[in-house]
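Hi there. Long-time user, first ticket. I'm pasting a complex I've been working with (about 751 residues overall). I'd like to know whether the download I got is complete or cut off, because the file seemed smaller than I expected. Thanks.
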Amino acid sequence: MTLKTAGVCKTRVRDLAKLELISVNKRFGRTTAIDNVSLVVEDNELFCLFGPPGCGKSTILRLFLGLEAPDSGQIRIGGRDVTQLPPADRDLAMVFQNLALFPHMSARENLAFPLVSRRADPKHVSAMVAQVAETLHIGHLLDKFPAHLSGGERQRVAIGRALVRNPKAYLMDEPISALDARLREEMRVELNRLQRQLNHTFVHVTHDQEEAMAVADRLCVMRDGRVEQIGTSLELYNAPQNRYVARQLGSPPINFISGNFDVSSGVFEASEMALAAVTGKANAGRGAAWLGVRPEDLSIVRDKSAGAVSVPAAIYEVEPLGAITIVDVKIGEQILKAQLPGQPKFSEGEYVNLCFDLRKCHLFDSDTERRLATGLDAINRN
Amino acid sequence: MAAIDLINLTKLFGFVKAVNDLTLTINDKEFVALLGPSGCGKTTTMNIISGIEQPTAGSVCFNGKDVAHVPPGRRGIGFVFQNYAIFTHMTVRANLAFGLEIRREESVTIARKVAEMAALMRLSDRLDRAAGRLNVNEMQRLAIGRSAIVRPEIFLLDEPLSNLDAAFRAEMRTELKHLQREIQQTMIYVTHDQIEAMSMADRIAVINLGVLQQYASPIEIYNNPANLFVAKFIGSPSMNLLNCRLVTDGGATKLDFGMAGRIIITDPKLLAQSRMAQRQDLVFGTRPEQLELRSDDGHASSLRMTTTFVERIGARTIVHLEHGDLALKVAEKNGYGAERGEARSIIVSQAEALLFDAENGRRVQDEGA
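Hi, the file is complete. Here it is re-exported in full:
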């Protein structure tokens, strides 16, 4: 049986499932939910929509599904315009945040439901259920009812229910955010494995930055119904287009230091601390700017070392996390977070020097919030 | 002054033992986190401390006095919940002043305390705004400020940060810890998030299925977890736990990982641990940051595995590897070059590795411990 069902998986035939939004707008009353969004989810990609609550990420899923109609713009699935098509004809499967399992049905019946309701051949139904159960490691749970399953198990059944069909793409609205931290970490590995195994297009919605970076082939950072940036997690983390994207990704978040920037000399000077640096790469900007430095690009030394750019600071709080230690340091009135490897010891109020890895720092324009440059150097004061 | 003793606490809900013979001492002014997965009994324990629930057996003492007959309102406890519990129709100022007004404090004192707390919670410019119009982050700061302002002797917080976004959560961790130091109250913090517990608490009580697993400082729990449950629950990504067999072969003591290879134990500390093992079937524990990946082969302390996938989560890159039934994770830096399908040697740092008894899950203590 196992061999036979495993065969079903490989013989699954499917259409190309590229999902596209073209200049889509959507308003709810006076609120603009989606503001001229164009994006392409490539076939066989795990694409992640990421942003705070209310940014429009779930609305995009509902537009793809056909649960909402756009005010203007076009929606395409597999190259075909589906804007006017009802949900049932779009052939997408959805996993909701609240799982929506039927409490009076066993896990097996829940899994079979999408097929049974389409009057599928019972033999096909049991083969598909067995295959999905194997993929998700829930074979031993099939006769249990949702009330007797743990959060993670229920989650897997809910995902399984979307998998028994062979849709063009799977859409998932915060499928694991209700779980405990530890389980979430395991489930995101599972999700990734699942996507590779199924070779299908996945659109995943989350407000959890670590989850977004961990699972996505590419992610889309959203704000107020607009797309801020699309790319791989590495691209977005290391080259954020603006201050918003920089702050949304990474925990503890990137530190910002206000100052002034002059493009003709390339010099940035912080107004509230003795910090100055130069960049040769910026192509615009004059006036107020922010220096962005990630916690892991800061280090702490007790003695001022020659060469390194450092600023005197005082230890404010120490958060030992085992593998890393987050140290909050105070410079004047500002608190910066440094992330150090291992378990270094500091005492509160201790005076130290904070060193900047300037090559990894970014400059952002304080009006437009756009990134002006990445990579600075110490100013050679001879 | 508020020291708390929980003595052999048990709480039954029907046949379910929500709390099972829990004994815990919380010192005056201490910040203690109750940490565990949902349903572990941590919230029930907190409710028993506050008096909302009565224990089935055992007792709760404040400063050595049994409080079984003290009603919740007289226990001197301040609360902060996940869902705020603030009056949304009232202004921020009225919310902050509420607890003080109930106590009929003088209006001058109230005004002064409200101004101080608003400054501490960074709400000074929001004082006249209706609480319902605050954003999520501000609401949670208000909820904390509202409880803190009456200076309860004991402060109970039930997952107060779980609704906040990641960037703000990181800031609030620092602020809460600082707040506790400023107001010098005994704080009990319930959470399922090990990062919150690690970063703020003086001591962490790890609870599973109603049973206390370990009670120690964050670093002690991280470096010397008492058993497999604690080892797995603390740390992100979690500790690698690999089944192995202890074998001696030609005078050398080895750990046999089956197909993935064998490790010759050379480190004296690990050797000492292995001598105390009660049986051959062990679980080898090693943290993702304690492993090193190499493309070459043939190190005495190396396992051979294939990269299955790579998580790039900002500052760190988590490389997942597998061989047969064994799977592990290695933490590397941002931008680390790794691709799916590559074969790698994994060099284990023996000095930091831990051994657990595969049967009872307890950590094998070396002779020194």
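A couple of notes from our side: Chain B touches chain A through 46 residues (CB under 8 Å). Residues 166-183 of chain B form the longest helix (18 residues).
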